[in-house]
């Protein structure tokens, strides 16, 4: 069905948009920061997407998109870089509301440091598998930068909960995208390891994207970000 990808975007957007005006979360009050983060990060993500599509990292099905393309990307793919961060940052605010008390889990910082370095090394070792190499190196690089300059983004209890919740949503929607399939991948560009129908590389892509949006969102947010953060005892 030519509307498949469009309907997926609408499904991602619908709940967060309708609940933006819930008096408990009042997400609509955060929209200036939300859209500032989306504009900043999505501009870079779209540039990457254009290059990756042209290089054959992945391909979009004509049968499941409406046929409008910009620089080789379906209109729905551009909408993806609005609907997904909008929904994920809404989820962040919901976690903040229900968690009530946040804290810094400092014991997680060494693990993040190891992960960042390990991902970058794995990226270098990926060789000609370009999607594998790029996503591991960029994800590892961002994590490493955050451990140095913004470690609280990684080690807040709320951040870890949020990453877990959004990872489950990612598995749901990306399974649909890759099972239909709306998007397919160049066999020589990926490792071949999959979680169901999802290339393993997409998990690192998702983590990179989430951390980039969250970091910029917290930067643009005028009020203190979420609940008071206390060191873990």
Automatic annotation (TrEMBL):
Where is the protein situated, by its record's location annotation? Membrane
Q: Which UniProt keywords apply?
A: Carotenoid biosynthesis, Isomerase, Membrane, Transmembrane, Transmembrane helix
Pathway(s) the chain acts in: Carotenoid biosynthesis
Q: Which residues form a coiled coil?
A: none
**Topology versus the membrane:** Multi-pass membrane protein
- Keyword check for Transmembrane, yes or no: yes
The name this protein goes by in its record: Lycopene cyclase domain-containing protein
Q: Which organism is it from?
A: candidate division WS6 bacterium OLB20
